[in-house]
């Protein structure tokens, strides 16, 4: 995927807590903008929105 773009929720200041996404008609890929050559998470477009909604409602473990 070549069309990587930063999330609009990049964090304060210079956006150093940012993820980038790239999508096709069938998949969305997510990567850490600080390490773009690291592995990516790729999921189907049909589960992308439920995935994001689940992240918003999940409380991180201590």
TrEMBL record:
<dbReference type="Pfam" id="PF04149">
    <property type="entry name" value="DUF397"/>
</dbReference>
<dbReference type="InterPro" id="IPR007278">
    <property type="entry name" value="DUF397"/>
</dbReference>
<feature type="domain" description="DUF397">
    <location>
        <begin position="3"/>
        <end position="56"/>
    </location>
</feature>
<protein>
    <submittedName>
        <fullName>DUF397 domain-containing protein</fullName>
    </submittedName>
</protein>
């Amino acid at each position: 995927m070549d069309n990587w773009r930063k999330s609009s929720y990049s964090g304060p200041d210079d956006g150093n807590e940012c993820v980038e996404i790239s999508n096709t008609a069938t998949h969305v890929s997510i990567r850490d903008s600080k390490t773009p050559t690291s592995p990516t998470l790729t999921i189907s477009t049909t589960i992308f929105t439920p995935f994001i909604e689940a992240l918003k409602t999940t409380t991180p473990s201590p």
